From TrEMBL:
Protein family (similarity comment): Belongs to the peptidase C56 family.
Protein name: ThiJ/PfpI family protein
One matching Pfam family: DJ-1_PfpI
Gene3D superfamilies: 3.40.50.880
UniProt cross-references to SUPFAM superfamilies, sorted A to Z: Class I glutamine amidotransferase-like
Length: 173
């Protein structure tokens, strides 16, 4: 019997709507379970363009060690997410375990704050290029960059390339 693959997705207000929903829908198409975690469980978070998403769990209480991968959408939410010690703990754990971590656009801020980018090839929106480099990342202007367990992308138009690589990395493991 095949084990269910589970992906944890971190959210806060002003997430980039497409960068949350496109990955979730693609993962659903693959039969991969995705759960949303925010500061509070059962909280309605509103995206930059008004599309809501309700968290199922609080990232303060969730057993994140049960998840096979982590997804962090961009928008302005990453600037809030990186301020929570629990989020930093989740990101560091996933990285230490070699589990896939997908981040797009401004979500690289969270990985920079977690201190896991040193020597890693990554991409992001140009707006945080300097932050990624200052965190030790090797920034590349590509639609998707995969360096071990870290899968990064620049913007919504890159989502098809990003999710193809994220799913390939997730299923490979």
């Amino acid at each position: 019997m095949k084990r269910e693959i589970k992906v944890l997705c971190l959210i806060d207000h002003y997430f980039e709507d497409l960068e949350l929903w496109y990955p979730i829908l693609r993962l659903m198409e693959e039969g991969i379970a995705t759960h949303l975690a925010g500061e509070k469980a059962n909280e309605k978070y509103i995206g930059k363009y008004g599309i809501p998403a309700t968290s199922e769990y609080s990232f303060m209480d969730i057993n994140y060690k049960d998840y096979d991968a982590l997804l962090i959408p961009g928008g302005w939410a990453p600037d809030k997410l990186r301020r929570y010690p629990e989020v930093i703990e989740i990101v560091r754990y996933m990285n230490e375990q070699g589990r896939p971590i997908g981040h797009i656009c401004h979500a690289g801020w969270v990985l920079a704050s977690a201190g896991i980018l040193k020597g890693k090839q990554v991409t992001s929106t140009r707006g945080i290029k300097d932050d990624m480099i200052n965190a030790g990342g090797i920034w590349m202007d590509e639609p998707v960059v995969v360096d071990g367990n870290i899968i990064s992308s620049r913007k919504p138009l890159d989502l098809p390339f990003y999710m193809k690589e994220f799913i390939r990395t997730l299923i490979k493991d």
